[in-house]
What does this fold into?
Amino acid sequence: MPTCFYNTLTRKKEEFKPIKSGAVGMYTCGPTVYNFAHIGNFRAYIFEDLLRRYLKFKGYDVTQVMNITDVDDKIIRDSNKAKNSIAEYTKPYRDAFFEDLDTLRIERAEYYPAATDHIPEMVQLVQALLEKGIGYRSDDGSVYFKVSAYPDYGKLAHLNIDEMRRGSRVQSDEYEKEEIRDFALWKSWKEADGEVYWETEIGKGRPGWHIECSAMSTKYLGNHFDIHTGGVDNIFPHHENEIAQSEAATGEKFVNYWLHCEHLMVEGDKMSKSAGNFYRLRELLDKGIDPSAIRYTLLSTHYRQKLNFTFDKLEAAGKSITRLRDFKKSLSGEFKEGQLQVNDITEKYLAEFEAALDDDLNISGALGAVFSLMHEINAFRQGTELCSEDARAVLKTLEKIDSILNVLTEKEDKLSDEETQLIKARATARKERNWAEADRIRDQLLNLGIILEDTPQGTVWKRKIGIK
It folds into this structure.
């Protein structure tokens, strides 16, 4: 079965055919580092991580570029207010972003270009548009893209260019859809910008938001590359403008496949500070929520469906991960030698897992195959003892699956001194047959997020996944 993705450009599923056999160039819209990233941002980054990992699973050599927007209207406003340079202002948020990627087990891209490090490439692109008469200067020296000079404008968002408001020009990085007509490529310096400007061949100023992504994507991936991703809120005007300025400047097709993920809701409502349901990753971690549960929750809804992020889902995610990890652990003991018996089961469900993801990253179908694998192996074990070859085969299958999900491997964990002492005290209570005290300590440990299991080999512990 071929791998197919829903292409926003054509509004249909298409078989994925890379430009270069065996290789994929992929650009993903990254963070604007004026604050800490919120879970809506990470919904997109997790979807892109799933896409990246699956392409690698299929054998492709992936080159991913994710930009860092470190200059825009908000950053200039807030850095000037704090009386810091934009480099000083954005550094804590930039560092936190990479820490958050690691926390959520998001695989690093090959390149993370920062906008401020690529001003010459942006200037070169603007110059090309000026030379072709598609860019023009306004009275204040800014440079705008002439939308009427690019007949294909609107093809990504499927807009009718003739119905758009004529004569409007937009310099702000934030604007409503009906306000857009011509958009800023280069913004001339104004007093409110303070020390934020570059002296260039096209004047003193700074780049527009859209030109940043065009310049950085084409530098690292070429004028024409395979995949561009982002949230649905990026389709218009940001990605529409990227296509227009890139294709107008180079004369080449910009991107073959456009993939966009839907919005994230929180407890059924749009996430907003005024609604009290606005969460940054660090705020969830401070509530004692395991990052694996957050990753699983953000991963487990199809990227083109709205994701309703709830605390019940986090709890359920923790339970699902625990079941899978316990299953994996059950295959790590001593087994008799013998002939492989479960090959048909592992091959069947690995094929179902792959077929689901081939269908536009159908994650629910893929997860269904994983749990069916676990159920059928457990059912097999009820009547037939596994041999060492069986255990290795299932573990190898889980390893392949987890190269994409990345939730089954537990990070090395240690008990705190308090937790260690409580476990010892419970062991003493059990030895003295003081069952009430043993139960009290078990409950105390559970409140700390430690689950105890009494086995014939002794008491073992594991940390609760989800909400403590």
Summary: The first strand starts at residue 4 and ends at 7.
